[in-house]
Amino acid sequence: MTRHLVTSALPYANGPIHFGHVAGAYLPADVYVRYLRMKGEDVLYVCGTDEHGVAITLKAEKEGLGYAEYVDGWRREIKALFDKFEISFDIWSGTSRCPQHAELSRTFFTTLLNNGLIFDKTEDQWYSEALERYLPDRYLEGGCPECGHEKARGDECPRCGAWIDAKDLVSPTCTIDGSKPVLKATKHWFLDLPKIQENGLQKWYDGQNEGRPHTAWKPNVHGYVQAMLKDMQARPITRDLPWGVPLPEELAGGEGKVLYVWFDAPIGYISATMEWAEKQGKPDAWKTWWQSPDTQLSHFIGKDNIAFHMVVFPSMLLGQGDSENESPYVLPWSVPANEFYNLQGRKFSTSEGWHLNNEDFFSKYSADAARFHLILSGPESADSEFTWEGFQSTNNALLADKLGNFSSRVLKFAEKRFEGKTPQSTGELDTHEDLMRATEAFAEVGQRLAQQEFKASAKALMKACDALNEFFDSMAPWKKIKSEDPAEHSLCAATIERCIAYLELISRRLAPFCPSAAKELRQTLGAVAQPEQNKWGNDEPPKTLPAYLALGEVGVLFPKIDNDAVQDEINHLNSAVQG
After folding, report:
1. pLDDT digits (tens, 9 = 90+) for 15-53
2. With the C-alpha atoms ordered 161, 164, 170, 171, is the resulting torsion angle positive or negative?
Protein backbone atom coordinates (compact mmCIF):
# COMPACT_ATOMS: atom_id res chain seq x y z
CA MET A 1 0.00 0.00 0.00
CA THR A 2 1.36 3.41 -0.96
CA ARG A 3 1.80 5.91 1.83
CA HIS A 4 1.73 9.60 1.01
CA LEU A 5 4.09 11.73 3.09
CA VAL A 6 3.38 15.39 2.37
CA THR A 7 5.42 18.34 3.60
CA SER A 8 5.15 22.08 3.13
CA ALA A 9 8.21 24.29 3.42
CA LEU A 10 8.78 25.22 7.05
CA PRO A 11 7.80 28.91 7.27
CA TYR A 12 10.57 31.01 8.73
CA ALA A 13 9.61 32.41 12.14
CA ASN A 14 11.06 35.82 11.35
CA GLY A 15 8.00 37.69 10.16
CA PRO A 16 4.45 37.27 8.90
CA ILE A 17 3.51 35.09 5.99
CA HIS A 18 1.05 36.34 3.38
CA PHE A 19 -1.28 35.08 0.66
CA GLY A 20 1.68 34.60 -1.67
CA HIS A 21 3.23 32.06 0.67
CA VAL A 22 -0.13 30.32 1.15
CA ALA A 23 -0.69 30.03 -2.61
CA GLY A 24 2.82 28.72 -3.19
CA ALA A 25 3.46 26.01 -0.62
CA TYR A 26 0.57 25.44 1.78
CA LEU A 27 -2.84 25.59 0.15
CA PRO A 28 -1.96 23.23 -2.75
CA ALA A 29 -0.61 20.74 -0.22
CA ASP A 30 -3.77 21.01 1.90
CA VAL A 31 -5.98 20.44 -1.16
CA TYR A 32 -3.88 17.43 -2.16
CA VAL A 33 -4.02 15.93 1.34
CA ARG A 34 -7.80 16.41 1.58
CA TYR A 35 -8.19 14.68 -1.78
CA LEU A 36 -6.01 11.75 -0.70
CA ARG A 37 -7.94 11.34 2.55
CA MET A 38 -11.25 11.29 0.69
CA LYS A 39 -9.78 8.58 -1.54
CA GLY A 40 -9.04 6.53 1.56
CA GLU A 41 -5.28 6.81 1.12
CA ASP A 42 -2.78 6.62 3.99
CA VAL A 43 -1.41 10.16 4.27
CA LEU A 44 0.60 12.22 6.75
CA TYR A 45 0.94 16.02 6.42
CA VAL A 46 3.97 17.49 8.22
CA CYS A 47 4.92 21.12 8.84
CA GLY A 48 6.22 23.51 11.48
CA THR A 49 8.26 26.66 11.82
CA ASP A 50 11.92 27.04 10.87
CA GLU A 51 13.25 28.73 14.02
CA HIS A 52 17.04 29.09 13.74
CA GLY A 53 19.40 31.21 11.68
CA VAL A 54 21.13 34.54 11.45
CA ALA A 55 18.07 36.51 10.36
CA ILE A 56 16.27 35.54 13.56
CA THR A 57 19.17 36.39 15.86
CA LEU A 58 19.61 39.72 14.09
CA LYS A 59 15.96 40.76 14.41
CA ALA A 60 15.55 39.46 17.96
CA GLU A 61 18.63 41.37 19.11
CA LYS A 62 17.40 44.57 17.46
CA GLU A 63 14.03 44.21 19.21
CA GLY A 64 15.61 43.35 22.54
CA LEU A 65 13.87 39.97 22.74
CA GLY A 66 15.13 36.52 23.62
CA TYR A 67 15.43 34.25 20.61
CA ALA A 68 12.79 31.79 21.85
CA GLU A 69 10.39 34.58 22.76
CA TYR A 70 10.89 36.17 19.35
CA VAL A 71 10.14 33.03 17.32
CA ASP A 72 7.15 32.16 19.55
CA GLY A 73 5.43 35.39 18.56
CA TRP A 74 5.83 34.82 14.84
CA ARG A 75 4.95 31.15 15.17
CA ARG A 76 1.56 32.09 16.65
CA GLU A 77 0.88 34.64 13.92
CA ILE A 78 1.84 32.22 11.13
CA LYS A 79 -0.39 29.48 12.52
CA ALA A 80 -3.27 31.93 12.85
CA LEU A 81 -3.25 32.56 9.11
CA PHE A 82 -3.20 28.84 8.36
CA ASP A 83 -6.22 28.45 10.64
CA LYS A 84 -8.05 31.22 8.76
CA PHE A 85 -7.46 29.32 5.52
CA GLU A 86 -8.53 26.03 7.16
CA ILE A 87 -5.11 24.55 6.40
CA SER A 88 -4.51 21.74 8.89
CA PHE A 89 -1.48 19.56 9.54
CA ASP A 90 -1.11 16.19 11.23
CA ILE A 91 1.82 17.67 13.12
CA TRP A 92 2.67 21.37 13.51
CA SER A 93 6.11 21.54 15.10
CA GLY A 94 9.16 23.81 15.15
CA THR A 95 12.89 23.27 14.92
CA SER A 96 13.74 24.88 18.28
CA ARG A 97 10.92 23.21 20.22
CA CYS A 98 10.73 19.70 18.75
CA PRO A 99 12.22 17.36 21.40
CA GLN A 100 13.87 15.13 18.80
CA HIS A 101 15.27 17.79 16.47
CA ALA A 102 18.68 18.73 17.87
CA GLU A 103 19.76 15.12 18.47
CA LEU A 104 18.60 14.01 15.02
CA SER A 105 20.35 16.94 13.33
CA ARG A 106 23.63 16.06 15.06
CA THR A 107 23.15 12.41 14.02
CA PHE A 108 22.81 13.50 10.40
CA PHE A 109 25.96 15.60 10.73
CA THR A 110 28.00 12.84 12.40
CA THR A 111 26.95 10.19 9.87
CA LEU A 112 27.87 12.41 6.95
CA LEU A 113 31.18 13.23 8.62
CA ASN A 114 31.97 9.55 9.27
CA ASN A 115 31.10 8.72 5.66
CA GLY A 116 33.59 11.25 4.38
CA LEU A 117 30.92 13.55 3.00
CA ILE A 118 31.71 16.48 5.28
CA PHE A 119 35.12 18.13 5.47
CA ASP A 120 36.44 20.96 7.59
CA LYS A 121 38.40 23.96 6.45
CA THR A 122 40.03 26.87 8.25
CA GLU A 123 39.55 30.12 6.42
CA ASP A 124 39.23 33.82 7.00
CA GLN A 125 35.87 35.24 8.01
CA TRP A 126 34.76 38.71 8.95
CA TYR A 127 35.21 39.47 12.64
CA SER A 128 34.06 42.46 14.69
CA GLU A 129 36.80 43.55 17.05
CA ALA A 130 34.40 45.93 18.79
CA LEU A 131 31.83 43.20 19.49
CA GLU A 132 34.42 40.40 19.83
CA ARG A 133 32.44 38.04 17.62
CA TYR A 134 32.49 36.56 14.15
CA LEU A 135 29.89 38.05 11.83
CA PRO A 136 27.78 35.53 9.90
CA ASP A 137 26.66 36.60 6.43
CA ARG A 138 23.52 38.52 7.33
CA TYR A 139 25.35 40.61 9.88
CA LEU A 140 27.24 42.07 6.93
CA GLU A 141 26.33 44.56 4.23
CA GLY A 142 28.46 45.73 1.35
CA GLY A 143 28.90 45.98 -2.38
CA CYS A 144 27.81 43.04 -4.55
CA PRO A 145 30.83 41.61 -6.40
CA GLU A 146 28.56 40.70 -9.34
CA CYS A 147 26.39 43.76 -10.03
CA GLY A 148 27.82 46.44 -7.74
CA HIS A 149 24.64 46.92 -5.70
CA GLU A 150 25.80 48.76 -2.56
CA LYS A 151 23.51 47.02 -0.07
CA ALA A 152 24.08 43.36 -0.78
CA ARG A 153 23.92 40.93 2.16
CA GLY A 154 26.75 38.59 3.01
CA ASP A 155 24.89 35.66 1.49
CA GLU A 156 22.83 37.08 -1.37
CA CYS A 157 22.33 40.17 -3.48
CA PRO A 158 18.71 41.41 -3.39
CA ARG A 159 19.14 43.10 -6.77
CA CYS A 160 20.70 40.42 -9.01
CA GLY A 161 19.96 37.35 -6.84
CA ALA A 162 23.58 36.13 -6.89
CA TRP A 163 24.75 33.86 -4.08
CA ILE A 164 27.67 35.62 -2.42
CA ASP A 165 30.66 34.45 -0.45
CA ALA A 166 30.79 37.01 2.34
CA LYS A 167 34.54 37.40 1.88
CA ASP A 168 33.86 38.82 -1.60
CA LEU A 169 31.72 41.71 -0.37
CA VAL A 170 33.12 45.09 -1.31
CA SER A 171 33.83 47.38 1.72
CA PRO A 172 31.57 45.47 4.14
CA THR A 173 30.18 46.94 7.33
CA CYS A 174 28.64 45.31 10.40
CA THR A 175 24.86 45.72 10.43
CA ILE A 176 24.81 45.84 14.25
CA ASP A 177 26.98 48.92 14.83
CA GLY A 178 28.18 50.01 11.37
CA SER A 179 31.80 49.23 12.18
CA LYS A 180 34.36 47.90 9.69
CA PRO A 181 35.11 44.20 10.33
CA VAL A 182 38.45 42.48 9.81
CA LEU A 183 39.22 39.04 8.40
CA LYS A 184 40.22 36.44 10.98
CA ALA A 185 40.82 32.70 10.66
CA THR A 186 38.14 30.27 11.92
CA LYS A 187 37.26 26.61 11.31
CA HIS A 188 34.05 25.49 9.62
CA TRP A 189 32.56 22.36 8.07
CA PHE A 190 31.31 21.85 4.51
CA LEU A 191 28.94 19.38 2.87
CA ASP A 192 30.71 17.74 -0.07
CA LEU A 193 27.88 17.98 -2.61
CA PRO A 194 30.10 17.11 -5.64
CA LYS A 195 31.08 13.81 -4.01
CA ILE A 196 27.46 12.97 -3.16
CA GLN A 197 26.48 13.83 -6.73
CA GLU A 198 28.91 11.19 -7.95
CA ASN A 199 27.80 8.70 -5.30
CA GLY A 200 24.13 8.60 -6.23
CA LEU A 201 22.44 12.00 -6.39
CA GLN A 202 22.80 12.32 -10.16
CA LYS A 203 21.59 8.76 -10.72
CA TRP A 204 18.51 9.33 -8.57
CA TYR A 205 17.71 12.68 -10.17
CA ASP A 206 17.97 11.19 -13.67
CA GLY A 207 15.54 8.42 -12.70
CA GLN A 208 18.09 5.64 -13.11
CA ASN A 209 17.69 4.24 -9.60
CA GLU A 210 14.79 1.80 -9.76
CA GLY A 211 14.56 1.58 -5.98
CA ARG A 212 14.00 5.34 -5.66
CA PRO A 213 11.37 6.32 -8.24
CA HIS A 214 10.00 9.80 -8.72
CA THR A 215 7.59 11.66 -10.95
CA ALA A 216 8.65 13.70 -13.94
CA TRP A 217 10.08 16.95 -12.59
CA LYS A 218 8.22 20.15 -13.38
CA PRO A 219 9.98 22.21 -16.08
CA ASN A 220 10.76 25.08 -13.70
CA VAL A 221 12.28 22.61 -11.21
CA HIS A 222 14.24 20.71 -13.84
CA GLY A 223 15.79 23.82 -15.36
CA TYR A 224 16.94 25.15 -12.02
CA VAL A 225 18.41 21.85 -10.81
CA GLN A 226 20.16 21.11 -14.10
CA ALA A 227 22.07 24.37 -13.79
CA MET A 228 23.10 23.46 -10.23
CA LEU A 229 24.23 19.97 -11.15
CA LYS A 230 26.50 21.28 -13.89
CA ASP A 231 28.47 23.36 -11.40
CA MET A 232 28.04 21.66 -8.02
CA GLN A 233 29.92 23.28 -5.15
CA ALA A 234 30.52 22.26 -1.54
CA ARG A 235 28.34 24.21 0.88
CA PRO A 236 29.25 25.45 4.39
CA ILE A 237 27.03 23.90 7.05
CA THR A 238 28.20 25.58 10.26
CA ARG A 239 27.99 29.09 11.67
CA ASP A 240 29.37 31.10 14.59
CA LEU A 241 26.09 31.87 16.35
CA PRO A 242 24.60 31.71 19.85
CA TRP A 243 21.25 30.29 18.58
CA GLY A 244 20.81 27.03 16.71
CA VAL A 245 21.68 23.33 16.96
CA PRO A 246 25.14 23.06 18.61
CA LEU A 247 27.69 20.78 16.97
CA PRO A 248 28.54 17.50 18.73
CA GLU A 249 30.45 18.20 21.96
CA GLU A 250 33.27 15.80 21.05
CA LEU A 251 33.99 17.61 17.76
CA ALA A 252 37.35 19.37 17.99
CA GLY A 253 37.02 23.04 17.11
CA GLY A 254 33.24 22.96 17.23
CA GLU A 255 32.84 25.03 20.38
CA GLY A 256 30.45 27.96 19.96
CA LYS A 257 29.35 26.85 16.52
CA VAL A 258 25.91 25.72 15.35
CA LEU A 259 24.54 24.00 12.28
CA TYR A 260 23.69 26.34 9.43
CA VAL A 261 19.93 26.84 9.37
CA TRP A 262 19.51 25.43 5.87
CA PHE A 263 21.13 22.19 7.06
CA ASP A 264 18.97 21.58 10.12
CA ALA A 265 15.69 22.98 8.73
CA PRO A 266 14.76 20.11 6.33
CA ILE A 267 15.69 17.58 9.00
CA GLY A 268 12.75 19.20 10.79
CA TYR A 269 10.40 17.23 8.55
CA ILE A 270 11.76 14.00 10.02
CA SER A 271 12.05 15.17 13.63
CA ALA A 272 8.47 16.51 13.45
CA THR A 273 7.34 13.07 12.26
CA MET A 274 9.18 11.56 15.23
CA GLU A 275 7.33 13.98 17.50
CA TRP A 276 4.02 12.97 15.89
CA ALA A 277 4.83 9.28 16.38
CA GLU A 278 5.70 9.86 20.04
CA LYS A 279 2.36 11.60 20.56
CA GLN A 280 0.60 8.61 18.99
CA GLY A 281 2.22 6.35 21.56
CA LYS A 282 4.16 4.61 18.79
CA PRO A 283 7.66 6.14 18.88
CA ASP A 284 9.00 3.99 16.02
CA ALA A 285 6.08 4.75 13.68
CA TRP A 286 8.06 7.55 12.00
CA LYS A 287 10.18 4.89 10.29
CA THR A 288 7.10 3.64 8.43
CA TRP A 289 6.90 7.05 6.76
CA TRP A 290 10.56 7.90 6.22
CA GLN A 291 12.16 4.51 5.73
CA SER A 292 9.56 2.46 3.85
CA PRO A 293 9.91 1.98 0.09
CA ASP A 294 6.11 2.25 -0.11
CA THR A 295 6.24 5.95 0.83
CA GLN A 296 5.76 8.68 -1.76
CA LEU A 297 7.30 11.89 -0.42
CA SER A 298 5.99 15.18 -1.83
CA HIS A 299 7.60 18.50 -0.90
CA PHE A 300 5.37 21.53 -1.56
CA ILE A 301 7.60 24.60 -1.81
CA GLY A 302 8.19 27.91 -3.56
CA LYS A 303 10.85 28.24 -6.24
CA ASP A 304 13.30 29.87 -3.81
CA ASN A 305 13.52 26.52 -2.00
CA ILE A 306 14.22 24.32 -5.04
CA ALA A 307 17.97 24.00 -4.36
CA PHE A 308 17.46 22.79 -0.79
CA HIS A 309 14.70 20.26 -1.55
CA MET A 310 16.03 18.93 -4.85
CA VAL A 311 19.79 18.89 -4.21
CA VAL A 312 20.83 19.59 -0.63
CA PHE A 313 18.27 17.59 1.38
CA PRO A 314 18.33 14.56 -0.97
CA SER A 315 22.14 14.64 -0.65
CA MET A 316 21.84 14.67 3.14
CA LEU A 317 19.43 11.72 2.99
CA LEU A 318 21.63 9.75 0.60
CA GLY A 319 24.59 10.35 2.87
CA GLN A 320 22.92 8.51 5.78
CA GLY A 321 23.96 5.17 4.31
CA ASP A 322 27.50 3.83 4.26
CA SER A 323 29.79 1.94 1.89
CA GLU A 324 27.95 -1.32 2.58
CA ASN A 325 24.37 -0.14 3.11
CA GLU A 326 22.20 2.20 1.09
CA SER A 327 20.55 5.06 2.97
CA PRO A 328 17.37 3.89 4.69
CA TYR A 329 15.57 7.16 3.92
CA VAL A 330 13.09 7.69 1.11
CA LEU A 331 13.93 10.43 -1.38
CA PRO A 332 11.43 12.93 -2.82
CA TRP A 333 8.88 11.44 -5.17
CA SER A 334 7.52 14.83 -6.21
CA VAL A 335 8.59 18.44 -5.67
CA PRO A 336 5.80 20.64 -7.12
CA ALA A 337 7.61 23.94 -6.66
CA ASN A 338 5.57 27.01 -7.51
CA GLU A 339 6.72 30.36 -8.83
CA PHE A 340 6.06 33.66 -7.02
CA TYR A 341 2.57 34.97 -6.27
CA ASN A 342 2.29 38.75 -6.23
CA LEU A 343 -0.33 41.32 -5.25
CA GLN A 344 -2.00 43.74 -7.63
CA GLY A 345 1.01 44.10 -9.94
CA ARG A 346 3.72 44.19 -7.25
CA LYS A 347 5.50 41.88 -4.84
CA PHE A 348 3.91 41.41 -1.44
CA SER A 349 5.68 43.65 1.11
CA THR A 350 4.42 43.92 4.67
CA SER A 351 7.05 46.54 5.50
CA GLU A 352 5.83 48.78 2.67
CA GLY A 353 2.13 48.17 3.37
CA TRP A 354 1.62 46.24 0.13
CA HIS A 355 -0.19 43.25 1.58
CA LEU A 356 -3.61 42.05 2.65
CA ASN A 357 -4.57 42.54 6.28
CA ASN A 358 -5.46 39.03 7.35
CA GLU A 359 -7.90 39.90 10.13
CA ASP A 360 -9.70 42.46 7.99
CA PHE A 361 -9.88 40.17 4.95
CA PHE A 362 -11.43 37.21 6.75
CA SER A 363 -13.88 39.41 8.62
CA LYS A 364 -15.39 40.34 5.24
CA TYR A 365 -14.76 37.52 2.81
CA SER A 366 -15.14 33.78 2.62
CA ALA A 367 -12.11 31.59 3.31
CA ASP A 368 -13.53 29.14 0.77
CA ALA A 369 -13.64 31.79 -1.94
CA ALA A 370 -10.08 32.80 -1.07
CA ARG A 371 -8.92 29.17 -1.23
CA PHE A 372 -10.56 28.59 -4.60
CA HIS A 373 -9.23 31.82 -6.07
CA LEU A 374 -5.66 31.18 -4.90
CA ILE A 375 -5.76 27.73 -6.48
CA LEU A 376 -7.31 29.01 -9.69
CA SER A 377 -4.81 31.86 -9.99
CA GLY A 378 -1.86 30.00 -8.48
CA PRO A 379 1.72 30.32 -9.78
CA GLU A 380 2.12 26.72 -10.90
CA SER A 381 4.26 27.36 -13.97
CA ALA A 382 4.85 31.12 -13.97
CA ASP A 383 4.61 34.07 -11.60
CA SER A 384 1.00 35.13 -11.07
CA GLU A 385 -0.86 37.51 -8.81
CA PHE A 386 -3.82 38.21 -6.58
CA THR A 387 -5.97 41.08 -7.82
CA TRP A 388 -9.12 42.28 -6.13
CA GLU A 389 -10.91 42.29 -9.48
CA GLY A 390 -9.86 38.69 -10.07
CA PHE A 391 -10.97 37.61 -6.62
CA GLN A 392 -14.35 39.26 -7.16
CA SER A 393 -14.71 37.51 -10.52
CA THR A 394 -13.90 34.10 -9.04
CA ASN A 395 -16.35 34.61 -6.20
CA ASN A 396 -19.19 36.12 -8.24
CA ALA A 397 -18.96 34.70 -11.75
CA LEU A 398 -17.74 31.22 -10.84
CA LEU A 399 -18.58 30.22 -7.28
CA ALA A 400 -21.76 32.26 -6.82
CA ASP A 401 -23.19 32.15 -10.37
CA LYS A 402 -22.08 28.78 -11.69
CA LEU A 403 -22.06 26.68 -8.52
CA GLY A 404 -24.08 28.51 -5.87
CA ASN A 405 -26.82 29.64 -8.25
CA PHE A 406 -27.20 26.13 -9.69
CA SER A 407 -27.61 24.74 -6.19
CA SER A 408 -30.11 27.42 -5.24
CA ARG A 409 -32.21 27.07 -8.41
CA VAL A 410 -32.48 23.31 -8.09
CA LEU A 411 -33.15 23.09 -4.37
CA LYS A 412 -35.61 25.98 -4.27
CA PHE A 413 -37.48 24.38 -7.17
CA ALA A 414 -37.60 21.09 -5.26
CA GLU A 415 -38.75 22.92 -2.15
CA LYS A 416 -41.56 24.65 -4.00
CA ARG A 417 -42.71 21.91 -6.39
CA PHE A 418 -41.76 18.65 -4.65
CA GLU A 419 -42.31 19.52 -0.98
CA GLY A 420 -38.55 19.73 -0.30
CA LYS A 421 -37.97 16.09 -1.19
CA THR A 422 -36.29 14.16 -3.98
CA PRO A 423 -38.74 13.54 -6.82
CA GLN A 424 -39.47 10.02 -7.99
CA SER A 425 -37.66 9.34 -11.25
CA THR A 426 -37.54 6.55 -13.81
CA GLY A 427 -33.94 7.44 -14.69
CA GLU A 428 -34.69 8.29 -18.33
CA LEU A 429 -32.25 11.24 -18.34
CA ASP A 430 -29.27 9.34 -16.98
CA THR A 431 -27.44 9.40 -20.33
CA HIS A 432 -28.29 12.97 -21.32
CA GLU A 433 -25.46 14.59 -23.29
CA ASP A 434 -24.98 17.45 -20.81
CA LEU A 435 -24.80 15.03 -17.90
CA MET A 436 -22.19 12.94 -19.72
CA ARG A 437 -20.08 16.06 -20.20
CA ALA A 438 -20.44 16.83 -16.49
CA THR A 439 -19.37 13.28 -15.61
CA GLU A 440 -16.25 13.59 -17.78
CA ALA A 441 -15.37 16.88 -16.11
CA PHE A 442 -15.85 15.42 -12.64
CA ALA A 443 -13.49 12.58 -13.57
CA GLU A 444 -10.91 15.14 -14.66
CA VAL A 445 -11.06 16.84 -11.25
CA GLY A 446 -9.62 13.74 -9.60
CA GLN A 447 -7.22 12.95 -12.43
CA ARG A 448 -5.69 16.41 -12.21
CA LEU A 449 -5.46 16.35 -8.41
CA ALA A 450 -3.66 13.01 -8.53
CA GLN A 451 -1.11 14.63 -10.86
CA GLN A 452 -0.82 17.68 -8.56
CA GLU A 453 -2.28 19.95 -11.25
CA PHE A 454 -4.46 22.05 -9.00
CA LYS A 455 -5.37 24.90 -11.29
CA ALA A 456 -6.54 22.50 -14.00
CA SER A 457 -8.52 20.54 -11.43
CA ALA A 458 -10.36 23.66 -10.25
CA LYS A 459 -11.13 24.56 -13.87
CA ALA A 460 -12.51 21.06 -14.45
CA LEU A 461 -14.88 21.51 -11.51
CA MET A 462 -16.20 24.71 -13.05
CA LYS A 463 -16.51 22.93 -16.40
CA ALA A 464 -18.76 20.36 -14.71
CA CYS A 465 -20.89 23.16 -13.24
CA ASP A 466 -21.22 24.69 -16.71
CA ALA A 467 -22.54 21.42 -18.11
CA LEU A 468 -25.05 21.06 -15.28
CA ASN A 469 -26.34 24.60 -15.70
CA GLU A 470 -26.80 23.93 -19.42
CA PHE A 471 -28.66 20.75 -18.58
CA PHE A 472 -31.01 22.59 -16.24
CA ASP A 473 -31.63 25.38 -18.76
CA SER A 474 -32.17 23.03 -21.71
CA MET A 475 -34.67 20.90 -19.76
CA ALA A 476 -36.54 24.02 -18.53
CA PRO A 477 -38.31 22.26 -15.62
CA TRP A 478 -40.20 25.47 -14.79
CA LYS A 479 -42.06 25.03 -18.09
CA LYS A 480 -42.59 21.29 -17.82
CA ILE A 481 -44.17 21.52 -14.38
CA LYS A 482 -46.90 23.76 -15.81
CA SER A 483 -47.73 21.38 -18.67
CA GLU A 484 -50.86 19.26 -18.60
CA ASP A 485 -48.91 16.40 -20.22
CA PRO A 486 -47.96 13.72 -17.62
CA ALA A 487 -44.86 12.90 -19.67
CA GLU A 488 -43.63 16.47 -19.22
CA HIS A 489 -44.22 16.21 -15.48
CA SER A 490 -42.17 13.01 -15.45
CA LEU A 491 -39.32 14.77 -17.29
CA CYS A 492 -39.49 17.63 -14.81
CA ALA A 493 -39.16 15.23 -11.88
CA ALA A 494 -36.32 13.37 -13.61
CA THR A 495 -34.51 16.67 -14.27
CA ILE A 496 -34.64 17.77 -10.65
CA GLU A 497 -33.70 14.30 -9.41
CA ARG A 498 -30.60 14.27 -11.64
CA CYS A 499 -29.62 17.77 -10.59
CA ILE A 500 -29.87 16.84 -6.91
CA ALA A 501 -27.83 13.70 -7.51
CA TYR A 502 -25.10 15.73 -9.21
CA LEU A 503 -25.22 18.33 -6.44
CA GLU A 504 -24.27 15.59 -4.01
CA LEU A 505 -21.32 14.76 -6.27
CA ILE A 506 -20.39 18.46 -6.42
CA SER A 507 -20.36 18.58 -2.61
CA ARG A 508 -17.67 15.89 -2.58
CA ARG A 509 -15.58 17.26 -5.45
CA LEU A 510 -15.72 20.73 -3.91
CA ALA A 511 -14.53 19.53 -0.49
CA PRO A 512 -10.73 19.66 -1.04
CA PHE A 513 -10.98 23.21 -2.38
CA CYS A 514 -13.75 24.72 -0.23
CA PRO A 515 -14.26 22.50 2.83
CA SER A 516 -16.77 24.69 4.69
CA ALA A 517 -18.91 25.43 1.63
CA ALA A 518 -18.90 21.72 0.74
CA LYS A 519 -20.07 20.88 4.25
CA GLU A 520 -22.80 23.51 4.04
CA LEU A 521 -23.96 22.14 0.69
CA ARG A 522 -24.18 18.63 2.14
CA GLN A 523 -26.28 19.95 5.02
CA THR A 524 -28.58 21.62 2.48
CA LEU A 525 -28.92 18.29 0.67
CA GLY A 526 -30.27 16.72 3.86
CA ALA A 527 -30.88 12.99 3.66
CA VAL A 528 -29.37 12.82 0.16
CA ALA A 529 -25.88 13.47 1.55
CA GLN A 530 -25.34 10.83 4.20
CA PRO A 531 -22.18 11.29 6.32
CA GLU A 532 -20.83 7.84 5.40
CA GLN A 533 -21.02 8.79 1.73
CA ASN A 534 -18.67 11.77 2.15
CA LYS A 535 -15.82 10.10 0.28
CA TRP A 536 -14.35 10.66 -3.15
CA GLY A 537 -16.37 7.81 -4.66
CA ASN A 538 -17.33 7.37 -8.29
CA ASP A 539 -17.24 10.15 -10.88
CA GLU A 540 -20.97 9.91 -11.50
CA PRO A 541 -23.93 9.65 -9.12
CA PRO A 542 -26.14 6.56 -8.77
CA LYS A 543 -28.56 5.89 -11.63
CA THR A 544 -31.49 7.10 -9.52
CA LEU A 545 -31.85 8.49 -6.02
CA PRO A 546 -34.36 7.04 -3.59
CA ALA A 547 -37.60 9.01 -3.85
CA TYR A 548 -38.90 11.33 -1.15
CA LEU A 549 -35.62 11.91 0.71
CA ALA A 550 -35.96 15.06 2.80
CA LEU A 551 -33.80 18.01 1.73
CA GLY A 552 -32.43 20.66 4.07
CA GLU A 553 -32.91 24.40 4.24
CA VAL A 554 -31.64 26.30 1.21
CA GLY A 555 -28.95 28.90 1.93
CA VAL A 556 -26.48 31.09 0.05
CA LEU A 557 -23.17 29.32 -0.44
CA PHE A 558 -21.18 32.26 -1.79
CA PRO A 559 -22.45 35.80 -1.13
CA LYS A 560 -21.52 38.20 -3.91
CA ILE A 561 -18.91 40.95 -3.56
CA ASP A 562 -20.04 44.30 -4.95
CA ASN A 563 -17.98 46.69 -7.05
CA ASP A 564 -17.82 49.38 -4.37
CA ALA A 565 -16.24 46.96 -1.90
CA VAL A 566 -13.56 46.00 -4.41
CA GLN A 567 -12.78 49.62 -5.21
CA ASP A 568 -12.53 50.40 -1.50
CA GLU A 569 -10.01 47.59 -1.08
CA ILE A 570 -7.89 48.84 -3.99
CA ASN A 571 -8.02 52.40 -2.66
CA HIS A 572 -7.02 51.22 0.81
CA LEU A 573 -4.08 49.26 -0.62
CA ASN A 574 -2.83 52.23 -2.60
CA SER A 575 -3.26 54.65 0.29
CA ALA A 576 -1.34 52.36 2.66
CA VAL A 577 1.70 52.57 0.37
CA GLN A 578 1.37 56.29 -0.33
CA GLY A 579 0.92 57.02 3.34
Report:
1. 999 999 999 999 999 999 999 999 999 999 999 999 999
2. positive
Query: pLDDT tens-digit profile of 220-277?
Result: 999 999 999 999 999 999 999 999 999 999 999 999 999 999 999 999 999 999 999 9
CB 431 within 8 A of CB 486: no
Which pLDDT belongs to residue 579?
A: 55
Beta-carbon contacts of 352 under 8 Å, excluding residues fewer than 6 positions away, are: 577
Fold of 115-195+205-240: Methionyl-trna Synthetase; domain 2 (2.170.220)
Q: How far apart are CA 174 and CA 93, in angstroms?
A: 33
Question: 158 burial class (0-12, 13-18, 19+ CB within 10 angstroms)?
Answer: exposed
Which residue ranges make up each domain of the chain? Answer: 3-107+260-343, 115-195+205-240, 358-376+385-533
Any idea which architecture 3-107+260-343 has in CATH? 3-Layer(aba) Sandwich (3.40)
Give, in order, the Cα–Cα distances in Å from 385 to each of 12, 352, 563. 22, 17, 20
Residues 6+ positions from 93 with CB-CB distance below 8 Å? 46, 47, 48, 49, 101, 268, 271, 272, 275, 276
Q: What is the CATH number of domain 358-376+385-533?
A: 1.10.730.10
For the stretch 455-467, pLDDT in tens is: 999 999 999 999 9
Would you call 579 helix, strand, or coil by DSSP?
Answer: coil
pLDDT, tens digit (0-9, with 9 covering 90-100), for 2-15: 999 999 999 999 99
Beta strands 42-49 and 3-8: pairing type?
parallel
For residue 258, give the 3-state DSSP assignment.
strand
**Cβ 187 vs Cβ 253: under 8 Å:** yes
Do residues 224 and 303 make contact, with C-beta atoms less than 8 angstroms apart? Answer: yes
Q: 477: part of which helix (H) or strand (E)?
A: helix 477-480
| pLDDT attached to residue 165 | 85
CB 244 within 8 A of CB 234: no
Tell me if 3-107+260-343 shares its fold with 358-376+385-533. Answer: no
Distance from C-alpha of 506 to C-alpha of 522, rounded to nearest angstrom: 9
Distance CA 211, CA 396 (A): 48
